[in-house]
Prior knowledge:
ten-stranded mixed β-sheet, 30% helix, 17 strands
Amino acid sequence: MREIESRVMQFRGSHYDFGYWQGDQLRGTLTLENRRKQWKTKRPRFEIDVADAKAAFLQYAPKIWEELEGLRDALDLPMDEVLRDFGGYRITPDRSGCSILTGDGFLLRNYDFHPQTYEGRYMLYEPSDGGYATIGPSQRIVGRMDGMNDQGLAMGYNFIHRKNPGKGFVCYLIGRIILETCATVGEAVELVANIPHRGSFSYVVMDASGKSCIIEATPRKTIVREAGACTNHFEVQEDENRHYLKDSFSRLDAIRSQPADLDDLNNAYRLFNDPARGVFADDYRSWAGTIHTSAYIPEKQEAWIAIGGNAEPVIFDFADWVAGQTEARTSFDGKIETTLGFGYLDRIHT
């Protein structure tokens, strides 16, 4: 059993200043040490052309490019290393699990991954130079694994596969771009349909009107479908699925077989967060253990998150924060049934 802490980090200002501030926070940390150390033992399975990456960012997320420049300047690193470690363009994402449910006014998610990838950073950011304010946990510093913006758009994504990759952005950068630039489900669908994709993922979005959908996205095609639950396989583009999907189907069946719990957030949260009920995963060594359960209530602008299983959620009033109040909490903690190391708490031996 590991007891871990996630920091609550809040910033209001320009993207460049946000990047510089994050670089200051990263300097000398195990997160940065472990991130850079991994490339000493394995060659990246991708190539990054700085000019090509910049052109893509300037087309789809110019302000996030300025954030990367702030990181570069604070850490005194060349831009190719910044893009390799934080950029989320043309890199190879690791496999993962994850389950998502949309119900009556909420989006609920289990984030399933390997502990060494977790960063323990829960971010509240309000840009002063364009883009919506956002709340949610970070991935690869700049990206977001799930979250909500001040327009009431909530987002999460699920891994499908890494085969036949394209020349595009990875899931957590696309998630961040959705949150910063889209106010409605329709806008999110249009963005995901047009942005270039590195890998294949399902993006689940819900807006303040209560509308939601699942976007099956690959480097080749995007399909939009309506459903309440989503795990790690496509239901329309079945030819894109991996061959082994037993765990994905098992979690989806666990959700759909308990319909009485699916429309009430409190009941659905217990379904997702209770390790005994079939949705919460414990296969941490295979990159598929539940690290956090998160929920977003767009109409109320409320965000929930809990680390580990059978845990009470920490609840954030994002509307108050957007209105100018400072979040009093600086951290929250939880317990996870694993002995594996976390990338921001332990030196990872590669």
